[in-house]
Amino acid sequence: MGSLDTTPAYKQQAIEGKGQGLVATRSLKPGDLILSEPPLFTTASLTNPATFEKDLGAIVKGLPKDGQRAFLSLHNNNPGSDPFSNIVRSNGYPLGPDSDVGAIFPLVARLNHACRPNAQHTWNAKRGVEVVHAVREVKEGEELTLSYSMGGPSEERRGSLEAYFGFDCKCEVCSLPQAELEASDARLREAQKLDEAIGDPRRVRHLPERALADCKALLGVYREEGIFDLRLPRLDYDAFQIAAMHSDAARASAFAKLCAEARTVCEGEESEEVVNMRALEAKPASFPNWGATKKWKSKIEDVPKDADANAFEKWLWKEAA
Length: 321
Ligand SMILES: [Zn+2]
Prior knowledge:
It holds the Pfam family SET. The chain has helices spanning 52-62, 65-72, 83-91, 154-165, 178-198, 201-206, 208-225, 231-245, 249-267, 272-282, 309-316; strands at residues 10-15, 19-24, 33-37, 41-42, 93-94, 102-104, 112-113, 119-124, 129-134, 145-146.
């Protein structure tokens, strides 16, 4: 994927009601790299909460002038005391999902939130940069957006966005006409229920057919709702785990492949998670929780080779042909 065009895919401009934002300078396809940015600084050395503001002040003072300007021009959700800490709280991103260390990426911080985002950010540890990819088709001039929230129906999303980021979301989804918003909320409540059921390990163990059917249903909800972010590869990974638990090498390999492809769109080929999933696609039995039962035992060679898309889908989800 990735375009060969070397002019930046974004430009910064004022967005009505949101301060500054980034918009696409050309049309983008799913998986196109929008930008990659090294941290202006990280919070790795800030280990003492009592002196956080003071130590952070020293870091900011030590930055080159344009870096200081970039930092101080970022939005502060909670102006008043401890201005440096609050700018970091308002704009920082962790260095990967499991990291306690935060970092400031002045450009990435300009990407505003949308509940149905068109881009995904991720920390690329190998290159030491935050990368942002388009996750769906984006038109020239369209605002580029990330999701800051955990999803859920509009009331939940808007409540947590207000509480953590201090804004009332007026994105495309939150400002849908009432009837359409209710339909979207119903889908997202259904998605939460399905997600919870899929995460129940006893069900995965004892009712795997139903757990797999729930994965397919959830995928349908995401499609209808226009969700293209990391929720897609996470769902493929859930389906992979169900197949893996029951020794189904063929489906485990197929879901690992789908997961790697969906992750590549969100995070790029170099993503560690993509590399991990490619390894599981080749050797699903290397998964630590492989084969608790032999219920669906199969070999990778059992992946149907000449099936059309429809027949493949039916096989994949264990539906009658
Ligand atoms: Zn919204």
